[in-house]
Structures are given as structure tokens and as C-alpha cells.
Amino acid sequence: MTKDRRNRAWYGKHDKDGFIHRSWMKNQGFPDHVFDGRPVIGICNTWSELTPCNSGLRELAEGVKRGVWEAGGFPVEFPVMSLGETQMKPTAMLFRNLLSMDVEESIRAYGMDGVVLLGGCDKTTPGQLMGAASVDLPTIVVSSGPMLNGKWQGQDIGSGTDVWKFSEAVRAGEMTLKDFMAAESGMSRSKGVCMTMGTASTMASLVEAMGMSLPTNAALPAVDARRMALAHMTGRRIVGMVEEDLVLSKVLTRESFENAILANAAVGGSTNAVIHLLALAGRVGVPLVLDDFEVGSDIPLLVNCMPSGKYLMEDFCYAGGMPVVLRELGAKLRPAKTVLGGDISAYAEGAECWNRDVIRSFADPVKPAAGIRVLRGNLAPKGAIVKPSAATPALLEHEGPAHVFESIEEMKANIDRDDLPVTADTILVLKGCGPKGYPGMPEVGNMPIPAALVKQGVRDMVRISDARMSGTAFGTVILHVSPETQAGGPLAQVKTGDRIRISASRGELTHLVEEDELKRRQAAWSPAPPHYTRGYAKLYTDSVMQAHEGADLDFLVGKDTRPVTRESH
Ligand code: FES
Ligand code: MG
């Protein structure tokens, strides 16, 4: 046992403080010898009945513990705030940074040497990684895993993606409300995260591509016995990582972020990955900017999963999962260390594809050039993004008149009006949905198609906002416009009838109004009063950075790895 292991400052002391640290732990029945200096492994758990996607994590924690004990470590499970994407108002994103603070301070304050992060639902994975990165102990991820494929009326249905489709079908009069309500139970029929390539499975896929989890972690269904075995093996591995001092920053390097960007394109991953990777890079100290996402722009879509394709995560797992994607990326992957200590290329070794329609090759992709495109121009000086794989190709080069909604309430109150003056060429603009504006930057950027147009058969149109959209959503939706309206970004100056031009191929987003006129509008503009004047939401609103910087709180950027020397008694 190494003498300088972090836990010795808690459990290795022969004084009043050591007595206190050990004695109270012993009330759980731990014998003397577990305090002998062996690696103490924190199991950071976001289990909650209010985060149904993470409801399988208590069992997985038991699997991790088996592995930790087996490898000679001492596992201790602790809860942190849990963020249930589908349950929290106004948006779970408001609390991602709060979770990260909970994770960071819990890891730092307690006497652990390594950490296993148990998360899954959208914000839990990035929030946990961000917090862990700011302490920088040996760290490894076990994800919830996706739900089994949704099944309804003999068909596979996908989390989120089919909710958007069904709800449009109801509005078009093509689906009854009775059928709509009945589909709920078939959509979510096991524990686990959304089984589309939404944000949760995207982040799990990128975690695997960054070498932060064991191979196959992303796609194994939540209820597959092999996920429990993976948890066990992860418990064994984290003990080794502590012995090797393989801290998180040795795995999360610039190269691993680039691999995540390549993988995000290949899997047709969520636009939310952009914001989470930027924030995470800020914690680790890796320089990463929005334009770096262009390294993935010519990578084709290889994984044929909703919302960009047709299959679901269960199919992706049975086809071979992320190891096959990493094998396809092959020489494009940057050399980067993983939690196993070797290079990421080892994750692809021996990977075989069992279904070529689910995971395609570069020679026969689902779609060409699938990576996130960054747009800039006088409407988004700091950038905006669009996901071509989920968009209508013809609309990616488009000019049209704006129809503006000044707030989410105005949009909801008017979108179904029969006399809304819009055509399929109209560009819908939604303001006030950025990090400061909502606050929390919700997933409302994929505004519904106006009812009048739905009835004409229109299923996609250009939509622009400072919001995000769900990773399960689709459409020609321009997101994360930065700076946001509430921060005085130029989106605030758009009026109904103004013309806007987008060109994804040239990376442009242009407000076609004279500069003098825009200056006049800017001078007459003032921000809306803040929604919250106290508590965490005030702290958030006062400190949150813009989307192109990852929407972290400004004082959380970076890390503090100094030992905590002061005792509480
Ligand atoms: Fe939790 Fe999709 S809502 S993973
Ligand atoms: Mg989401």
C-alpha cells in the first residue's frame, strides 16, 4: 500500500481526527482492516426515482462494489443531486452546473482515492464529469444504459423522437388522442435512458470514445446482465487506476476531445454534446472552441439510429456498439490514453459488426458529412450550430422572411393560430431561451411547425433560437445562437418580416438588414427583467457563460487539486 494515498489524511491518522473518521464509518459494520490504506473508491450515484433513466443505478453500484472488493479496494457509495430530464422545470440544464458543484465538493471533502461516476440521463453524465474533472482523481464512468426498444402496435418506437412525430400527427389530424396516450406505456418499458441516439446515449458514446469508460459501456441495454458484469469489471479497474495514478486529466486530453467530436458525427449525436464538451474541456484545461467541432464535419453518419436514422440503441448494441464505430473511424482517431492505460485503438480491436444496416462503413454511410456545422454571421457573431444529419438538406441553404416570437409564451400562444402569417419558406425565430434568458437554455429550439402549415403537409422549416433542442429531436433547427438575446446578442434585434439567410455549406447565418437600422434597434433595446432574484437561479443567471463557451458558471472553470488540510473538529 502506498503511504501517500489520499485517504490516509482521513483514515491513516492516529489521533482524534482519525478516530472520528474511522469510528463513525465503522457504525456500518466495516472491520479494521478496510482502513489499512487500500484504495478508497467513491461511487458517485445519481440514482433517483425522479430520474427514471437512472433508476437502475442502485443495482449497478452493487456490481461496482463487488469489483472493488475483489480488487482489494474499499468501495463507498454516495448520492449526489440527480437531474431528471423529463421531470424538472424549467429545464434540467439549469442545474447541470449545480450537480457539478455537488460532485466536485463531495469528492474533494471525502477521503477517497478514485471515483466511479454512475449517471445516464442527459445532464447527469456531463455534470458528473465536470465536477470530477475539477478535482482530478482517477475517475471512470458506468452509464445507466438505454431502455429496451419501445414497442407499440407491432412497431419499434423511439424515446423522444416518436413523441415529436406523434404530437405532430395529432395536430395534423392523422393520429387519435387515444392512440397518442396509449403509446406512452410502450415507449418506456424498461429501466434505462432514452433508447434513441439522444443526449444520454450520445454522451455515453462519447465517454466511450474518449476512453473514460470500459468498452461497450454506451450501448448495452440497462437491463442486460452484461451491464452488471461491466459494472463489476469497472470496480476492478478503478482500483488499478488508483494504483497507477491514472488521473482523469491523463485520459481527457485534447486528442480525446477530438475523438469525441469525430464519434459524435459518426453516431449522429446530439447537439447538446457541443455545449457539454466545451464546458468539460474548460474544467480540464483543454483549449477547445466551437470551431473545433468542424473537425467532424466531413465524417459521415455511420450509426443508423433515431433521430437521424431508423434503428434504436438495442439494435446498435447487438450490431456491435461503439467498438465497431471506433474500428470504422480507424486511423482518423487521434492517439489517446484510456482508463485501461493503453490507447483508444485497443477498444476497437477484434470488434465485429453483426448488422451492416445498423452500423455502416465509410463506403456505405447512412448520410454523408454528418458532423455538427458551426454557423456565424451578423446574427450569431460568436456562433450557432446546426445538425445536418437531422435536417432537410434543401433547407440548409435557405433565405426567407422571419416570423418572430419574443418569448416562449408568445410562441405557445400563437403557433396553432390558423391565421398565423407564415409559409413553408418562413424562418421561425424564438428569443429569450438562452442560458440567462430562460434561464437555463431549455430544449425548445425545435419549435412545433405552425398548425396551419402542418395541415398543408409541411413537416420541416428553418427555426432559429438561442435555445437548445433535445438530442432526440430533428429538423432544420439552428441552435445556441451566441450571444443570446438576453445578453444583448443581435438575435434580439430581429423583427417579423426581416429577411434571414442561412448557408450551412458556407457556415453563414446572416440578418439581411442594413447595419444602421440594426444599430438604431440595438440602441432602443433593453433586456427583460430577470426571472429569479434569489437562490441558485440568481447565482446561475449572474455567472453563466454563453453557449459557445459551454454555459458553465464562470467561477467553476478550471480545477483545484490542492489537498484539503483543515479538519472539522
Ligand atoms: Fe433521461 Fe432521455 S430523458 S435519458
Ligand atoms: Mg434532453
TrEMBL record:
Sequence ranges assigned to domain Dihydroxy-acid/6-phosphogluconate dehydratase C-terminal in this UniProt record: 357-551
InterPro entries linked to this entry: Dihydro-acid_dehy_C (IPR042096), DiOHA_6PGluconate_deHydtase_CS (IPR020558), ILV_EDD_C (IPR056740), ILV_EDD_N (IPR000581), IlvD/EDD_N (IPR037237), Sugar_Degrad_Dehydratases (IPR052352)
Highest rank taxon of the organism: Bacteria
Domain Dihydroxy-acid/6-phosphogluconate dehydratase N-terminal: 38-340
Matching SUPFAM superfamilies: IlvD/EDD N-terminal domain-like, LeuD/IlvD-like
Keyword NAD: no
Entry keywords, A to Z: Iron, Iron-sulfur, Lyase, Metal-binding
Pfam families given in the database record: ILV_EDD_C, ILVD_EDD_N
Listed PROSITE patterns: ILVD_EDD_1
Membrane-crossing residue ranges in chain numbering: none
Family to which this protein belongs: Belongs to the IlvD/Edd family.
Name of the featured protein: Dihydroxy-acid dehydratase
Species whose genome carries this gene: Albidovulum litorale
